[in-house]
Amino acid sequence: MTERTAAPAQRSHRHHWRRDLVELAALFCAVAVADGIANLVAHGPSGPALLVASAVALLVTAAFHTWWARRHSHAPPPRATGPSGPGAAPAPAAESAAAATGPAAAAEVSPSTTAPTTILWRMRTTVRDEPGSLAALCTALARNGVDILTLQTHPLPEGGTVDEFLLRSPQQLPSADLGRAIADAGGHSTWIERADAHDLVDTPTRVLGLATRTALDAAELPLALRQLLGRCTIQSIPATTLSGRPNAGADAPVEGVLEATVMRLRDPSGGAITVERPYLPFTPTEFARARALVELDARLGPRVPRSQDVLTLPEGNEVTVRRADGSDLAAARAMHDRCSERTLGLRYHGPVADADRYLGHLLSPRFGRTLAATTASGKLVALGHLLWDGDETEVALLIEDDWQRRGIGSELLRRLLAMAVEAGCDSVYAVTRAANTGMVAAMRGLGLPLDYQIEEGTLVITARLDAATAGPRLAQEQREHREPWEQREQHGRHDHHVQPEQQHHRR
């Protein structure tokens, strides 16, 4: 290091007399030029004019130099042409300056250029568990202009790995071409579907959010499992049937069972929860996450939200709307006893004597959410159900005869559909008889697109929900409908027990 710095110093000392000679010659030239200009100004015929012209020329030159320096003061220094030499030292500064000014420069060069339209995809593919397999996939995606937003790896017991991607690809790249590129890079069993902005949330944040929802409400467990695992069918199988006999498939072990596209977990409230996804096998990682949610539900025990609303009907009577569960079973049976056979027949579409047998299932938070309307004295006069029917959602109402045609059913229905929108349901259906004009009117009063199917006197009305528009619309209609009703919020005082019962589809 010392020798390298000493050599230039010696060369500088050896050539020092040359620089002195050049500077002395320049000094004599400057003195001669100054003397000539002074004599010309002092003794020449146009000396003052020449002096003024010289001053103007100097001012113009100074102004031009200032303008030029300001315009080019932020230009990045030239990039070094090699690893060594005079330009090598400022290369990092040049690169950082170019990176800092890159977007602005691009905007100046092409102000009308816009970013190409892109599409979000969720993709899963299986690769060999060996070095370089993931790199081959990433290279194939980069070659097609695809950006990887998130990546998860799911090791498989047999040795492979399932890689799950969230991708942003050019709009002109179809999913078929994307699948072929992945296959050429060594991926197989590839599954691709459209994604949206909600999938941009990272997995730990999404799992924590689902755990929070499950902790607040026992009815959220099936919905949390569905959102955790994607499109799948979830069934809750009670331990016994309506007749009291053991139910087949309800004997899941504590640790659960994973069988390719089906997982069976023990239901904390009794029986089992089956999750089926025919188009894509579950991975051990997904099975462990699902089991953790079920274990959380088991540790927290039965629970329902405690909020309730007190509504004042137009005639002055007060009705309290709150969440219901298994502790309301006796009150619901008493309401059945006060209802006419026609009202029960329109609700349950079967023998009236079997109506009480369905209540245990309907009031269980495991199978959905139930709203109860009670009078000021505590008498239950109406029930509204939002039931998870596999990958579909059913709504049902039962209003005691003396309290019908007062707007209670419409109020419960609006609240149930608002819950469905919040849960991410695409649609809800109601099964009734064609003669049930009250239910038909309540569904039509929602202002949503409806589909009707009639078969042998049974009417199925399906309301299509759009989470972006249906929620605000239902909330607005609910506010308009409640006026001149009064609303105030209170809090309940009881923690209730949930009893599992046989699931009853389309009842």
What does this entry look like structurally?
This protein is of the alpha+beta class. The protein has three domains: 118-198, ACT domain (Alpha-Beta Plaits); 203-300, no CATH class; 307-491, Aminopeptidase. It is built from 15 helices and 17 strands. The strands form four sheets. The protein has a six-stranded antiparallel β-sheet, sandwiched between helices. Strands 2-3-1-4 form a four-stranded antiparallel β-sheet, with helices on both faces. The chain has a four-stranded antiparallel β-sheet with strand order 5-8-7-6, with helices on one face. It is elongated, with a radius of gyration of 39 Å.
Low-confidence stretches: 1-13, 74-115, 478-507
Q: In the CATH hierarchy, what is the superfamily of the largest domain?
A: Gcn5-related N-acetyltransferase (GNAT)
User: DSSP strand (E) fraction?
Assistant: 15-25%
| Integer-rounded radius of gyration | 39 Å
Shape: elongated
For the biggest sheet, the summary is: 6 strands, antiparallel
Number of strands: 17
Supply the CATH architecture of the largest domain: 3-Layer(aba) Sandwich
Summarize model confidence as the mean pLDDT. Answer: 75
* CATH topology call of the largest domain: Aminopeptidase
Q: Walk across the major sheet and give the strand order.
A: 13-12-11-10-9-17
